[in-house]
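Handoff note, outgoing to incoming analyst
You'll be picking up this chain. Sequence as last confirmed:
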Amino acid sequence: MRWLVDGMNVIGTRPDAWWRDRHAAMVRLVDMLERWAAVSGADVTVIFEQPPRPPIRSTVITVGHAPKPRRDSADDEIIRVLIADPEPGAVRVVTSDHFLADRAYAAGAMVEPAAAFRDLIES
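Most recent structure output, in case you need it:
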């Protein structure tokens, strides 16, 4: 199973004042994803709406971002990556954005709600 994660959507599932330091929230999410992927063996790509500054690197998961920051740019990048996948039916898109979920289903992927996924990676 390959996972395409709407990063800010997952971060936004907890009202833990992440908006005060977006970069730190992104680093925490990548750390959680790395630990979960290392244990589960999952192939994980997280997409953010803009490049993290400073960059966040990982040897366990893929950290990506939209080419240009703007509203819904991460959603568009997730769909671009999904459509480019040779087996979109083997991909699970993590989001609670209904429009992105509809686009992912239309491309052949499965969808996991962001809050349920966060519960999974935190357990």
